[in-house]
Write a structure and sequence with these properties.
With about 100 residues, this protein is an all-alpha fold. The protein contains five helices and no strands. The protein is flat, with a radius of gyration of 21 Å.
Length: about 100
């Protein structure tokens, strides 16, 4: 019985298709950057957006790792809370 090596003969998908898939997956799992009610926004989403926007500003790998660790610690503690809870507590402390 003859076996076929299909894996080596499989054509590579076009680069545009790979890029489309990568963009689709990133958009699917990225938090929305639209205005919405603070009672529905998780602090984990806020931290994720902040991390995404700021991480590349650190050129030093050590600074990037420290930044990653800081965001991870904040996410562990605050991530499951809604933005409205933090906002109301901060407002209460400052008034």
């Amino acid at each position: 019985m003859e076996t076929l090596d299909i894996g080596s003969k499989r054509p590579h998908p076009p680069e545009a298709a790979e890029q489309f898939l990568a963009n689709y997956i990133a958009a699917k799992y990225a938090p929305e950057r639209k205005m919405k009610d603070v009672d529905r926004i998780l602090l984990a989403d806020v931290l994720f957006i902040y991390h995404t926007d700021r991480r590349d500003q650190f050129e030093d790998k050590l600074q990037q790792r420290r930044f990653d660790a800081s965001i991870d610690r904040l996410n562990e503690y605050f991530g499951n809370h809604k933005l409205s809870v933090l906002a109301s507590r901060l407002f209460t402390c400052w008034s």
